[in-house]
Design goal:
This protein is 20% helix and 11% strand. It contains one helix and two strands.
């Protein structure tokens, strides 16, 4: 199932919207468990410019930000660099 949140959202608005959808699924349809969750987002700064997270070790953009439920699941990602937020204002505005 794809759940689409159109338009621009603040972090708070997005959290509230996601919570509302999950609450609806739980309350109305008794859906309390989820797996294989993918969340695709376009990161924006306060001036609505595109931003990327950059790995400080490789200086490559982070394409996938992985979230694990427990520390036991992260063995294979222990040796990664830190994240840095980079604003690229050289891109033309759309």
């Amino acid at each position: 199932m794809n759940i689409v949140f159109g338009g621009k959202h603040t972090a708070t608005e997005l959290m509230e919207s996601i919570y509302s959808v999950l609450k609806l699924l739980a309350d109305k349809y008794n859906v309390d468990n989820f797996s294989d969750i993918d969340l695709h987002v376009k990161l924006l700064d306060c001036d609505e410019h595109d931003v990327e997270l950059i790995d400080t070790r490789t200086f490559e953009p982070i394409a996938v930000f992985e979230v694990y439920k427990s520390a036991n699941d992260v063995d294979e990602v222990q040796d990664r660099g830190n994240l840095t937020l980079v604003i690229d204002n050289t891109k033309p505005d759309k």
